[in-house]
Amino acid sequence: MTRVWKWNRPVTVREVLEDLQKERSIAYTTVMTVLDNLHQKGWVRREVEGRAYRYEAVSTRAAYAAALMNEAWSQSDNPAAALVAFFGMMSEEQRQALTDAVRIVQLPETTDENPGSAEDRGGR
Fold first, then answer.
1. What is the C-alpha separation between 8 and 59, in angstroms, rounded?
2. What does the pLDDT read at residue 73?
3. CA 44 to CA 31: how far, in whole Å?
4. What is the per-residue pLDDT for 112?
5. From residue 115, how far is each of 44, 83, 108, 110, 124 by CA, in Å?
């Protein structure tokens, strides 16, 4: 999945193979099998192009990581304690990213507790 996410576009088995071979020796059939397994699991979609397939990620790497965290958290018998333990493992940079994320998703607070209608405020 790392290679598929890396390019952020549909990729062929050959492209993934050539990229992986820069780091280690690996067979074409191995890469083909892994991409087929990812397709079977629903992690990638594929389209025929000539005699080959082009594979594309179904979700982003961030969405995948979020789903993993949510799954792990939902398995806890004490979600609050799990979050406290998780936060305790975070680096300062990760805690800052969390703070930024919370700020982004918080709904804006209304400043007028009971706005009423325009007529109630003297308008027409």
1. 10
2. 87
3. 14
4. 53
5. 49, 37, 16, 10, 15
Collapsing DSSP states into helix, strand and coil, what is residue 114? coil
40-76 as b/e: b if 16+ CB within 10 A? eeebbebeeeeeebbbebeeeeeeeeeeeeeeeeeee
Q: List C-alpha distances in Å: 17 to 12, 13, 24, 37, 50.
A: 9, 6, 10, 16, 18
Give per-10-residue mean pLDDT for the chain (124 aa): 92 96 96 97 95 95 90 90 91 93 78 50 46
In this structure, what token pair is assigned to residue 121?
């405020």
